[in-house]
Amino acid sequence: MKNIFLLAAILLFLAACVPIKAVRYLIPDLGDSAKFENVTIQKSTTPFYFKSNLGNSTYYSLKSHLDSSLVGTKTNVFLVIKNDSIIYQYLSEGNTLAVRQPSFSMAKSFVGTLVGMSVDRGEIKSTEELVIDYLPELAKNDERFNRLTIQHVLDMRSGFDFKERSFSPFSQITRSYYGADLKKIVNKLKMKNEPGKVFEYQSINTQVLAFILEKATGKGLQELMQERLWKPLGAESEALWSLDKADHIKAFCCISATALDYAKIGRLYLNRGNWEGKQLISKKWVDITTNPDTLTKLRYKNQFWATRDFKFFKDSVSAVSSLDKEGLKYPVERNPDGRYFYAKKVYDYKAQGMFGQSVYINPQNKVIIVRLGDRQKKLNFHGFVQDVGRSVK
To answer: C-alpha 351: how far from its chain's center?
Structure first.
C-alpha cells in the first residue's frame, strides 16, 4: 500500500511537469490555444475593413489556378489582397473569416515591429545597445554577452546555445512551447558562437526581445501589442496570446487571430509604417527591415523572412561572372548536386510560421497574401505563396 501511495505521488508530481504535457501532445497542432492559458488582446473600436473585389474577371485565371491547387492541402484560409481589396478568397469547409487561427512563429514579426516602435520612442536608444543593458543577469553566464547587441537578437545571429529542432519532451524548445517558465530559461542562456557571426533560427531570440521590451517600457507585452499595434491597426476581432506557467507571454509564437487581422501587419509594412495617415512605425525602421540587398544577403531581418530565389550555374566562375554583370556582391554557394548558385535580389518578404502559416508582402505588386492551415506534403507553401504573389500584376 505504501508503494502505491508513493507511485501515485510521483505520478502526480510528473503530471505537473512541462515534459508530461509535451509527451501527451508531442507535436503542436491548430488547437493548441485551447491547451494553454491565454490573455486577450482587445479589438479596435474603429475597425479597418479590406474591400471586396471578388469575382473580378481580371483575376479569373488566378482563381481557377488557386481553386484547384489548394484542394487537399489542409489550407483553412488563403487570401490574396491587392490595393486594399480582397481579390481571392479560399475557405475550407467549416471555416469562416471570423475563425481565429494560430500564428505559430508569425508572432515573431509582431514582436520585431514592437521593438522598432520602442526604438522610435527612444525607450530603446538603439538596436546596437547591449542586451545586458536591459537583462544584466545574463552577463554572468558567458563573457560573450558583453558583445551581444539587440540587433544580433533581432536578426537571429545571437550565438545562443539553444537547440531549435527537437522532438524530445525534455528539450529547451519543447519546454518553452509547452509552458515552462520562460524567464528562467532565458536567465540560464549560454553562448556557443560569437554574436553576429552565424545565422541560426532560434525562437528564444524573440523571447529575449520580449523581456527587453518589457524592461524598456515598463509594460507587459500584451499591453504593447494592444496599444501600439492591434487597436491602431483596426483589428476587427479579439486575439488570444498564450502564456507560460509563470504568466509570461510566449512571444515567439502562439497568437490566435483571424486572417484579416493578420493581414494588417502586411498592410502596415506595405505602406512603409503609415496607417490611414498616421505613422505608427518609422519609415526608417521599415526601410531597414525590408531593404532588398539586406534581405537577399541575410535571409532574415528584424524578425521578418526574405523570400528565396536562386540562380544556378555549372561552375563558380560562371556564377561570379553573372554577379559582376548584375553589379551584385552576393556570396556564391555550392548546391549538394554540384551546381553553384547565388540568391537573386528579392523585394518581397514575409512573416512565417510552421505548417506554412504566412503573411507575405510584395511591395512591387502591392500584394498581401495570408495562408493559414495545417501541415501537409502536397505543396511547399512558402514557395507557392511567393510564386502567386509575384504573378499578381
So the answer is: 5
* Structural domains of the chain, ranges and CATH numbers in brackets: 32-309+344-391 (3.40.710.10), 310-341 (no CATH)
3-state secondary structure 302-342: CCEEECCCEEEECCHHHHHHHHHHHCCCCCCEECCCCCEEE
Burial class (CB in 10 A: 0-12, 13-18, 19+), 367: buried
Give the rounded distance of the alpha carbon of 347 from its chain centre: 18
**pLDDT tens for residues 4-31?**
555 544 444 444 455 555 555 556 777 7
What whole-number distance in Å separates Cα of residue 381 and Cα of residue 387?
A: 10
Q: What percent of the chain has pLDDT over 90?
A: 77
Q: What is the DSSP letter of 181?
A: -
pTM for the model: 0.91
The whole-angstrom separation of Cα 25 and Cα 18 is: 11
Q: Which amino acid is at 304?
A: F
